[in-house]
Amino acid sequence: MSTVKKQTSLPAIQQTAGRGAARSAARRRGSAGYGAERRPRWVTYTILGLVLAVSAYPIYFAVLLASSDAVTIAQNPIPSLIPGPDLFANLSRVLNSDIQFWTAFANSLIIATITALSVVVFSTLAGFSFSKLSFRGRGPLLVFVIATMAVPTQLGVVPLFILMSRLGWVGQLQAVIVPGMVTAFGVFWMTQYLESALPFELVEAARIDGCSLIRAFWHVALPAARPAATMLGLFTFVASWTNFFWPFIVLGSSNPTLPVAVQLLQASYFKDYSLIMAGVVAATIPLVVLFVFAGRQLVSGIMQGAVKG
Amino acid sequence: MGRRNRSWLAVGVGTLGLALVASGCSSSSSDAGAGDGTSSEGGGSGEKITLTVATFNEFGYEGLIDEYMQLNPNITVEQKKAATSNEARDNLNTRLAAGSGLSDIEAIEVDWLPELMQYSDKFVDLSSPDVEGRWLDWKTAQATTPDGMLMGYGTDIGPEAVCYRSDLFAAAGLPTDRDEVATMLGDTWDSYFAAGKEFMAKSDVPWFDSPGAIYQAMINQVQNAYENNDGTPIPLADNTEARKVYDSVLQASVTDGLSAPLSQWSEDWTNAFQNDGFATMLCPGWMLGVIEGNAAGVTGWDIADVFPGGGGNWGGSFLTVPTQSAHPDEAKALAAWLTAPEQQIKAFKDKGTFPSQVDALSSPDLLSVTNPFFNDAPTGQILANRAAAVTVAPFKGPNYFAINTLVQDAITRVAVDQTDDANSSWDKALTGFQELGL
Amino acid sequence: MATSASTQPVARGASGAGAPVGGGRRQPRPRAGKLDMKLSPYLFISPFFILFFIVGLFPLAYTAFVSLHDWGLIAGQGDFVGLQNYLDVLTQPRFLTALRNTFSIFVLSSVPQVIAAIAIAAVLDQNIRAKTFWRMGVLLPYVVAPVAVSLIFSKIFADQSGLINELLGNIGIEPIRWHADPLSSHVAIATMVNFRWTGYNTLIFLAAMQAIPRDVYEAAIIDGAGRARTFFSVTIPMLRPTVIFVIVTSTIGGLQIFDEPRLFDQLGQGGADRQWMTLTMYLYELGWGPQKSFGRASAVAWILFLIIVIVGVINFSITRRIAAAGPTKGGKR
Predict the structure, then answer these.
(1) In chain C, which residue's Cα lies nearest the Cα of B435?
(2) Contact A102, A262 (CB under 8 A)
(3) pTM of the full predicted structure?
(4) Structural fold of domain B158-314+377-436
(5) How large is the ipTM?
């Protein structure tokens, strides 16, 4: 007699004993799929490890060069696999050079923070309106917003610069902050996210209970938007932090942002990559720190969306 | 969960408000002197004014600016740096186009001048009896418009000599002493190429690094390479002079195989320094630092006091005063001071920028400079000789570089990318010339 | 889907949790004021539009105006020439080269990117340990400065001394001419682009995947679906809005690629034969290069705009049809 016990398939259970029995059987078997029950196999971690290795290589590369010296770099076009000894020496060279590192750091922090917050707030407001409210011109306006993403930004430099000089903002942080305070991408992103993530019944229910639209927004839309809003804030912060061309044109080296300041390390005919890469590392560290903090927010915010009653 | 959700946004909006206020405060404190030098109450002497100087790369002005401020207590000078000359150029063009935002003194490279001269009305005429004869003739000529207006005061130049690997020469049985090498290379392109053939008969190493560099040096010795003296372009199809130079460069580089298939400043070119990629190269003063850096650890580099075709110059900068400046007279005075021989020598000692001022070229500070990486060669003396040997001041009108790029691209296609032969590549250049619509 | 604990008791008159709501855009009863409902939308979008009109629209209108004139970058405004700039640009061989390059790089970058992003997001969607670490890790390429990225890739893709060609040489294959051959240059540049943006799109897909309710998966498993079947029949259709979003933004971004091809060599023109020059690089060369023709550069910008709109609409309709799936019962609408 066979001692192999064959499991009854779940569809069979569902047919005979009903859905609830099938569900508890599934949970017991731990095959309920993507929920909190199942831990993935080592294959998953291998793939993830590979992805991470490739993603992290540029930063690692920068650290490799930043911890070396110009002679070693010149003699070894493909760098070694382990860092050299000079990382802190080169980092202090960067901090002690005349590129105004700390001013640039402060400027970048102010600009990126304000820009990220403002983009999130305005985009969520606009996204809520476009996705859940009906008003005249909604369709064409949304298409217009998306279409503006299609115009290349290089040309905008000259008219934008003219505008900034008329306002007297050349050399001041507002010239970088104000053009960055709203983005078409942000509006588009929040619109499509709220479209599927925020049931209109919730808004309706809040309105029935006597909320004005703004209160409905505050109590209902914002919580629903939290995962996407956190993501948008993160993306915007990083994009603003790493932006070079416009801050270079309008702020220059007298009131620089971090990429502009670090770029100055390249100012010589022979490029000392140990110094340049040390600058890159110094400019990237704050973002990595942000990732650690934002990461927790992001994960908890995203997991919020996974809870289903 | 509901209440906690709201608090993160309250914090966010509060921070936004606070930060906007903070940025208002911080930007006003960083306002001092930023922008375009308009922060004076009056331009007369005794009033405090601020001058801005825009430079790129390394001009060596840090110490000089402090010195000037001590000599002129009512003047504050601020330097605004761009890392590379391309960035500085983008900045200059954007602000010229916008009509505001330029510094009181803008440093420019000689290669930008042909184009900028079309807009000479946007710059102050810097001619003055005080600076007559200060610079080498050909240097002043580069910045003088056909109407006789002086657009810029010269700072540095890039006189060229020939750098070579004496160890590779020795291995091929060629002389290695500086003077003997100079004699062997001779001062015509034919003798330079002939020496190359002799070298390559006994060595696998290419003779020179890049066909583009040779073309640039050769075309720079032609008086009217692409345009007539009145500025009208010579149609490329009719330009026999350029075609001749093009053909001889390709003959030497590809047919005779004297060149490494490299484009200067590419990754392959940089790595070639460590791999015996080539035995000689044309080197202006500022290239010495590049060679030393890229060829770290390689012994055997030396420099010969000779240049095929007589003399050559690559690069060099000027200080200009845009008409946008609020203090043109003071700016002009500062520019004149910065480009005086004494100051240029100080900049040279600080950052190696080779002076263009006649008096500086005979200064013992300059002539006594030797370079240990290049076998202790008297580089100061050699480069001063080379500077004096430059005879041709080629005419470069507004379309010079557009046409030059066409021919350089043609050479790259044949010798580096090897996607075309000499004739088909030239035809593509002709099509490109049509596209320019000149 | 988070429900706000502070609001409703069972909503009176409005739909309960299970009943399907058609369309979902019904106006509620006028208890809260018609005026509020009519005006508020405009108020909500006005901050965006006010700022946008000033700093976004002014440059757009300006460049449209410029494109109709013979306008030099420094020389300034010239004569009105109507559509002459557009005609000039369209008849230049270099424009066609740029068009070819742009499309080639676009296809080579967008297609692998979207596929890889969905795949990696699916892997990240599981209940892995150290979630934060892995999830933030994929965004790392996005934060690194261009100078570092271009240096790495130039060491990898150098024609003679680059890493890939050295490895190929070691196993006896002919070196690939990354800078001389057009298609190879496109592959190299597309690799750089994919490298930078895949993680970004992965997180976008991940956010959407995590918003899919888990009991839908349970139902699928109970119905006997395997992992792969679940993925293609459940996950992807529910991701449809996000897929559309990513395809549209990738189209717009992919046709405007500028930084990576610019940094591919030291000259930044797109190669001696313009073998990897994209349309935005061409625009930049016309405007800031030797010609300094701001008018022609603006014309290219608006031609590019038209191309992006056309391709965007095509992509949008393709994606809508491929991923078509009915809404699940009781789901979000």
Answers:
(1) C92
(2) no
(3) 0.84
(4) D-Maltodextrin-Binding Protein; domain 2 (3.40.190)
(5) 0.82
